[in-house]
Write a structure and sequence with these properties.
By secondary structure, the protein is of the alpha+beta class. It contains 17 helices and twelve strands. Its cofactor is Mg(2+).
């Protein structure tokens, strides 16, 4: 809003008097007179709700309009610094102006999207909408302009698992169990919905807090039944299953399991199981399937890695079997969120207690029932739906993610109480050196 919209009653009175005939001295002043008797309407200006204020800004505020022109604002989001870039997209930090929630905004240039990329993007949106798990990045809203498409997602501010391992070296097994348990739980949820990720790697596992991680980047995800065959090569070569290199088609879910095996190996050793200077040599290493596991890795962890890195896809462990692995015994696998409505146009009779709480919070922001009902056929392409999903996710985080954090903190405290061998400086140096990106990783 402009400054004129915020004038006090007294300021309104003064401005109202300017340009009027002067009042005679023997007439009582307006300030001491009953306004109703004089015919003046001095009702205070209507106080706008937070939602009305933001809408007013977007339509009439010169500063907001300038931010939109400069690419510093889109819809209800102010755009901040860049988080990352890809071939067709860049990811920036955003702030939802109504809730002050930080979000990640994936921006895609529509002029560079061919038909294949558009299909992948459509699947990415569809798959994310179907997944309701605390260890999976959430999609809030999709905003389309003439030139760009914006995917507004949950922000994970703790960085990538890959960066942590590259900088700090291998992860101790007790800590590795906490992380891998969450990733397995997320993948199990995906596969139970007939969704495969096809690009699982340490670069796509994001920290949102101490020990709490989320699977993200569903750009190559797709629907696939357990016995259905696919024929599109996706993902990063170091994590690619052997059948992707030698067969014309493959079954989807075992490809994700292979990638989990590579990821776990990388977590507990700090290096990749298959290493080469070129993609051609890497391909041969993977097809041969020969790798060794350092002796410091526990036998139970070795057994789990080998169960995921079977050359024959039909012999690999299933996601459900991973949850029962002896190495992960005693770990708590975070459950999926309870089923919830994707848009806020639902009847209150069918709402959960959690959703009713969210509706009340939306009402406090100034979003009325008729505005909620208007979101019925808009899916994720609506600012009110985006606001609803953000507020709902806050409630879910409070309930589920706080319990996950408590379990993680308890386990970490137990781990710290257990004495560990002190590493020599020389060994620490060698581990860090081994984690420098190879020529292959730099190319990829």
């Amino acid at each position: 809003m402009g400054t004129n919209d915020n004038m006090s009653v007294s300021e309104s009175q003064q401005s109202g008097q300017r340009g009027r005939p002067s009042v005679s001295s023997n007439h009582p002043s307006i300030g001491s007179q009953d306004p109703a008797q004089d015919g003046f309407n001095l009702d205070p200006p209507k106080r706008l709700t937070p939602y009305e204020r933001v809408t007013e800004e977007l339509n009439n505020d010169s500063r907001a309009l300038k931010e939109i022109t400069l690419g510093k604002r889109i819809g209800f989001y102010r755009i901040r610094n860049e988080l990352g870039t890809g071939n067709f997209s860049q990811v920036k930090l955003g702030i939802h102006v109504l809730t002050k929630e930080k979000v990640a905004i994936k921006m895609l240039d529509k002029t560079k999207l061919d038909q294949k990329t558009q299909r992948l993007l459509s699947r990415e949106i569809s798959c994310m909408e179907r997944l309701h798990h605390p260890n999976i990045i959430r999609l809030y809203e999709v905003i389309e302009t003439l030139a760009k498409l914006h995917l507004v997602m949950e922000y994970a501010g703790g960085g990538e698992l890959f960066t942590k391992i590259t900088n700090d070296g291998k992860i101790p097994e007790p800590d590795g169990k906490l992380i891998f348990t969450q990733v397995v739980s997320a993948v199990h949820h995906m596969h139970s919905k007939d969704i495969i990720h096809r690009d699982l790697k340490a670069e796509n596992i994001f920290y949102t807090g101490a020990g709490l991680v989320k699977v993200g980047d569903f750009g190559f995800s797709t629907y696939c039944k357990s016995d259905e065959h696919l024929n599109t090569f996706c993902g990063s070569p170091p994590y690619a299953a052997p059948e992707l290199f030698k067969d014309e088609h493959y079954v989807g879910m075992p490809v994700d399991i292979w990638a989990l095996g590579i990821m776990l190996y990388f977590m507990v050793t700090g290096v990749m199981p298959f290493r080469a200077d070129t993609v051609a040599k890497l391909k041969k290493c993977i097809i041969d399937g020969q790798f060794t596991i350092p002796n410091h890795v526990s036998s139970q962890c070795q057994e789990l890695i080998r169960g995921m890195l079977k050359l024959d896809p039909s012999e690999r462990l299933l996601a459900e079997q991973l949850t029962k692995a002896s190495w992960l015994a005693g770990q708590e696998f975070p459950p999926a969120h309870r089923s919830y409505h994707l848009t806020p146009s639902f009847s209150r009779d069918s709402a959960t207690e959690e959703e009713l709480t969210v509706l009340e919070q939306l009402k406090q922001l100034g979003i009325q029932d008729e505005q909620l009902a208007a979101t019925k056929d808009k899916d994720s392409r609506d600012s009110i739906t985006g606001t609803y999903r953000i507020v709902l996710h806050r409630c879910q985080r409070k309930e589920i993610e706080d319990s996950i954090r408590a379990a993680i903190e308890a386990q970490q405290s137990a781990n710290q109480a257990t004495p560990t061998k002190k590493k020599s400086k020389r060994k620490s140096k060698s581990v860090n050196e081994s984690n420098k990106p190879s020529k292959l990783c730099s190319l990829l």
